[in-house]
Fold this protein.
Amino acid sequence: MLNAVEFQAKIQNGLIQIPDEYKQEIGEGDDIKVIVLVKKKSFQNKDIIDELTENPIQVNGILSREEIYSRQL
């Protein structure tokens, strides 16, 4: 008889830690079948706007946001 349990875990020192609530169901020496689904960060093509938003360039001598939007002339 197969019994399935599902949980999320992080690999630490090459080991997958079984949560406490499943340790009685999954005992030492039990034969188990492991299927690993890895959530990878998706690769996205970033354009220049995305790049500059994440890493703004600091330039001296340019008006600040406050100066640009001030109502004084």
Remarks:
- The chain has a mean pLDDT of 83.
